[in-house]
Amino acid sequence: MPFTGKSGKFNAAIRTVEIGTGDKAVKLGGENVLPFYTFDAPIENAPKIGVLITDMGLENEVAGIKDYYAGATTFAEIAKKAEEMPGADFVVLRFEGADPNGENRSVEDCVAIAKEVGDAITAPLVIEGCKNVEKDAELFSKVAEALQGKNVLILSAREENYKAVAAAAGLAYGQKVGAESAVDINLAKQLNVLIGQLGVDQANVVMNVGSAAAGYGFEYVVSTMDRVKAAALAQGDVQLQMPIMTPVADEAWNVKEAMASEADMPEWGSQEERGIDMEVETAAAVLASGSNAVILKHPTSVATISKLIKALV
Amino acid sequence: MALKGLDIFKLTPKTNCKECGSPTCMAFAMKVAQGAVELSKCPHMSEEALATLSEATAPPMKTIKVGTGEAEYTLGGETVLCRHEKTFVSKPRYAVSICSADEDIDAKLEVAKKVDYDRIGERMHVEMLYLSYCADKGVDAYVELVKKAADCGKTLVLDCTDVEAAKAALAVCKDAKPVLDGADASNYEAMSAVATEAGVVLGVRGADINELYDTTAALEKLGNKNLVLNVGTASVKDAFATTVQIRRAALKDQNRTFGYPSIVNVGALAAGDPTMQAALVSLFTVKYGSIIVMEGMDYAQALPLYGLRQNVFTDPQKPMKVEPGIYPLNGGDENSVCLTTVDFALTYFVVSGELERSGVPCNLIINDAGGLSVLTAWAAGKLSSTSVSKFIQENVEPKVKCRKLIIPGKVAVLKGDIEAKLPGWEVIVAPNEAVQLVKFLKDLQANGEI
Amino acid sequence: MTLFDRVFGGNDAVYGLTEAAIDGAIAQYGEDAAVSFPDTAYSLPCYYAVTGSKVTNLKELKAALGVVKTLMTREKRLNDAFMSGVATALCAEFIEVLKYMNGAKPYEEPCYGHLADAIIRELGVPLVTGDIPGVAVILGSAPSTEEAVELVKSYQAQGCLVTLVGGVIDQCVEAGLNMGNAVRIVPLGKDVTAVIHVVSVALRAALIFGNVTPGDAGALMKYTMDRVPAFVNAFKPLDDVIVACGAGAIALGFPVVTNETENIFRVPKSLIVQEDVSKFNATSIEARDIKIKVTKIDIPVSFASAFEGEIIRRGDMQVEFDGSRVDCFELVEAKDASEVEDHKIEVIGPDFDEFEVGSKHSIGYVVEVAGKSMQADFEPVFERKFHNYLNCIEGVMHTGQRDMIRIRVSKNAFDAGFRAKHIGEVLYARIKNEFDAVVDKCQVKVITDPELCTKMRHETAIPLFDKRDDRLATLTDESVDVYYSCIMCQAFSPSHVCVVTPERLGLCGAVSWLDAKATNELDPQGPCQVITKEKPIDERIGEYEDVNEAVKLYSQGALEEVSLYSIMEKPMTSCGCFECICGIEPFSNGVVITNREYAGMTPLGMTFSELASMTGGGVQTPGFMGHGKHFISSKKFMKAEGGIERIVWMPKELKESVAERLNETAKELYGIDNFTDMIGDETIAEDPETLLAFLTEKGHPALGMDPMM
């Protein structure tokens, strides 16, 4: 007697959100099953991978990343290489240097970089800020304006600045809005509701429900995503049916395991390998928990996760 | 749905005889309902009650024990599909694979031993060895391999579908309770007999999920319920589908035939690609692998992996805690500034990470705060001026000369009280968020305040 | 002459002018000549927004005028007046667009005329976020240049966008006022028809930010009414054209404030006469319900949570106020809007300079708030925050509450210039900031006059505190219409939902029904949501269809049914943060309660933490339930099983802390005196047998009650 498993297909589905334009536009979400449960129902849009570049250039990156971008000096050249990285679906430009407590790059300079990158590539573009809520609000609104017509995703609006970010990106300049909350289903839902109340169409919203590197409170990420997907699919909660995008590179390359030098931790071996595995394992875990897209930066990580996704979908 | 404690209590003798080890029948009933104690511990249950209860209280997924002594591990016994529903109980265990055809067996054994470290009170290492039988090399070579591997202090999993080879291998290692991963549709009767006789857990495999199901059902019919299920190596997609479906069938659809732990060989699914194996081991750690086999294990793969496992398998109601003590960072010594926060592992990691990034030499002082976050601990009275000052007087003052203490911004309210209770100390209030610590400390340093 | 006559008259006059202008243009340029405003994708934005039709040439413009004519009905009904106002505005747009014929540039510095789409998008974001709290449209000439500039500056200081039409522009130029989009003062044009350019901003905002479909006039007006916080200040004299334009503004939801008194008709909240130009600002802000954000606290010392734990020792103290020795109090009072002047800080009595260093005095401060959604029930919620607010001031220490407060001000703070009024500034700014959802206006009185303090403490404050306590005491589950959900702890306990009722506070002990209600009003999307209780299923155990639905919703389906008053049937779930836990003790037919602080054994054979691990996590566990301390003396405590009579054991400390109120309830419900004497504790028994013997000896009522299971 063969095994007869019950299908876990749901009546509700994750909303499909498209970013970018033209042939290279990507669709996020759309599935009506749990992550990679293709045995329940086909998953039309496989999870996508974004390649992270920053306004700080390549100086602080590990050798493997520098090597990949060898010869690229301008932001346009770097962005071009990023979109050509095997396995890449979109490019993510992060304005790390905009932080008032750091480089404090001016909004005008950031806009210029954003335009340079936006004009250089045909793949969809996602914009990340510097996490300073006031600066990001201003930065995002100007960048959204400068990149009109490119259907970029602004990642992201947070509880503190959602009005300015969502109004600019989602209403004034017709871009996609990322809604970022800190690993809590209720906060995620509340932010989605508030953004909806501003008048932003929910079909233009992508969530970042928070992230952590593996080993750093990752249980909250798993549980938040498990619960969000359960609410969206099993309960049909329309306020949680947005696809999820998770910036993995930011967290993964910033923990001790990826940062400690080989001199300090000789038994741990290659620092670059550690960074890659932290990025790859964190990405695999967030995808398994429900992310519809991940943001990575090392070419090996991008190739590996791309291979993983292809093998599963 | 499992029975409620009160339903079980009604069937107990209600004598509070304490013979079960619990002080009252009510306490016993509640523990049985939780799955913490077996019903059979009560010697006075009536036959009728036992019959009623054992079916209802039988767990949907069996708990399987493998290995002995320090290398004894519990697999399975899960009751939920998502950790937030209750908790996951049995961590996946990681194995490194070695084949009797391998040229460099000794070197591989060394590799398997290499990763060994402590993370928040838990030893992190490769717990198992997955030993594959190569028919071309013969039984003796396999037995040699098993003998060598048996000395490593790791639990063995014998990947062997040859009945004679399995017998020979078990003859030298069965006392250490290995797993015999060798039953399939063609040999299950003989293999089951071998495993039963040796008293070891039997691994079952099939060409696909249906064959796996049928073979498992057939084994159960033979009376063998000491099983683990090998999800196969046909493809990543199949392995994942099988792993998820057997767990879901067991827990959600009460299909007891699939109520066993799993074996996933990611080493075979992505042979020669250690980074892909890292991705897969992470995937199966989150989704339902019980024994996960890799070709090797280095620190780069291990550091995120064991952290991930520790996170996912933590009990949501029992937070991870770090040991109280003084943690010097960036070469901090007796003259370096002191900072304090709670013992909640996540807080500790985040704070210590930021402190390390600041490069400022300091001492991070961790006191017992019940494993709660700063505000929760403060609200629960576990982080108070008394707890901080007492710990500092007893443990820090004898060792550290610096008399400056930085407290979390969220408990700025404690500043005055701590200063009152710690004469000679200057208390400085830190920012509310850990990410602001780098700038804060650098500023203090630049201003010559620390 | 009636208002209708004036509107209709003005409308007809403008219509005539427009018709003549269009005909003149056709004669000059021909029908096919293009008409458009520069830098907009919205054609003639106002006409397009209202009708959904685009106008590209003079022929179409002429046809459009015919459409406008159909709006100009002449019944003397409000709607006719409004539509004529809209028609007037559209005519103005036609007149204005003709000025741009043939690529002309009709406006020059400082006037803007038509505003480009890019400016709308730029302005729209702060409008949506509330960073631009209001849009002032100032029309005509102020009585004097000084008054004009003062009014413009007052709006600018509040962050409002100020648009100018007519003579006021020259007045501002004359005064040398810095103007322009960057400083949010935008002179539009000197003809009255230039006012259409700000209307165009409002309507394009609706199309861009409100996703309003062009031509959906209803949605358009709803959007401008709800989302565009504009208002008009029109200086006298008002001619009929301006009155007609005003009707259009009112139709869009923008009130008109004027100093014209001749031949004017007041319409509440819409057409307001304010003869005093210096009060235009306050009148307009109130009429349009604009909330001005308080961004900084105007005090000479720092304000931050880092100072919360600061202790001011006697030697460092400039002055002290001590409610235990002299009369002090702190109070929030909800008032009518007319009684409150926003940001008025009044000090009654001597200031700190007049006190001797280190001396002790009386102080009282009353924060009077007004707001449409303000309720007296929020007063104590605000008041409880005072402690935190005042402690965050550098050099100020505050302890206690109500009339038992103590405040110390340090010498350093005093030397920096900190005085009594700054207490008012802090309270004002914090209350406005944190409670802006319900507080529209706020004023503070700081009283240091000792006699007045004594009088107000006894005659105002104490009676009010008593009244509040009485209200709390009389609040019952039956006396209210709704309960509240609380999911604050779902981060720890994902499927748990607390149903908070007046007689059953949240099981953490920290969220009362009033707290939940305030949380809901202040943060409508937050953790506390209204639960109706209109569909009772079973009154005995307190089960309601609507409560079940809410619980199912907020637990994401994990929990389907819950009772409010039973621990045996569908009991409420527990998170992990309950103060107490009660569990059935079958041998004595009652319940044992234990609390977090008590680590010892209970007669159930389980400690608090063992019980907690079995009960927590948002799972229903019949026979066991987490709850707050205060719930123990509630009449609703396991009412379905017979109520507090069932309590057979509590830790001694807990028993003592609830004894008074528990005895009172027992007396009232069952006529039992000193009920707590019958309840066991750890000094009497830690096992069921000894407990049973004790209960039998005392004749505990639970022994004679129906079996619980």
From TrEMBL, chain A:
InterPro entries: Ac-CoA_synth_d_su_TIM-brl (IPR016041), ACDS_complex_subunit (IPR051069), Dihydropteroate_synth-like_sf (IPR011005). Gene3D superfamilies: Dihydropteroate synthase-like. Pfam families: CdhD. This is Acetyl-CoA decarbonylase/synthase complex subunit delta. Residues 17-257 form the CO dehydrogenase/acetyl-CoA synthase delta subunit TIM barrel domain. It comes from the Bacteria. PANTHER family: ACETYL-COA DECARBONYLASE_SYNTHASE COMPLEX SUBUNIT DELTA, PTHR36214. It comes from Anaerosacchariphilus hominis. Coiled coil: none annotated.
UniProtKB/TrEMBL annotation, chain B:
Keywords: 4Fe-4S, Iron, Iron-sulfur, Metal-binding. Gene3D superfamilies: 3.40.50.11600, Dihydropteroate synthase-like. It comes from the Bacteria. GO terms for molecular function: 4 iron, 4 sulfur cluster binding; metal ion binding. InterPro entries: 4Fe-4S_dom (IPR007202), Ac-CoA_synth_d_su_TIM-brl (IPR016041), ACDS_complex_subunit (IPR051069), Dihydropteroate_synth-like_sf (IPR011005). Residues 1-59 form the 4Fe-4S domain. It holds the Pfam family FeS. Coiled coil: none annotated. PANTHER family: ACETYL-COA DECARBONYLASE_SYNTHASE COMPLEX SUBUNIT GAMMA (PTHR36214:SF3), PTHR36214. This is Acetyl-CoA decarbonylase/synthase complex subunit gamma.
From TrEMBL, chain C:
InterPro entries: ACS_CODH_B_C, CO_DH/Ac-CoA_synth_bsu, CO_DH/Ac-CoA_synth_bsu_3_sf, CODH_A_N, Prismane-like_a/b-sand, Prismane-like_sf. GO terms for molecular function: 4 iron, 4 sulfur cluster binding; anaerobic carbon-monoxide dehydrogenase activity; CO-methylating acetyl-CoA synthase activity; metal ion binding. Residues 465-709 form the CO dehydrogenase/acetyl-CoA synthase complex beta subunit C-terminal domain. Gene3D superfamilies: 3.40.50.2030, Bifunctional carbon monoxide dehydrogenase/acetyl-coa synthase(codh/acs), Chain M, domain 3, Bifunctional carbon monoxide dehydrogenase/acetyl-coa synthase(codh/acs), Chain M, domain 5, Carbon monoxide dehydrogenase alpha subunit. Chain D, domain 4, Carbon monoxide dehydrogenase alpha subunit. Chain M, domain 1. It is an enzyme of class 2 (transferase). Its EC number is 2.3.1.169. Residues 21-101 form the Carbon monoxide dehydrogenase subunit alpha ,N-terminal domain. One of its GO terms (biological process) is acetyl-CoA metabolic process. Keywords: 4Fe-4S, Iron, Iron-sulfur, Metal-binding, Nickel, Transferase. It comes from the Bacteria. Pfam families: ACS_CODH_B_C, CdhC, CODH_A_N. NCBIfam families: cdhC, CODH_ACS_al_bet, PRK04456.1, PRK09529.1. This is CO-methylating acetyl-CoA synthase. It comes from Anaerosacchariphilus hominis. The gene is cdhC.
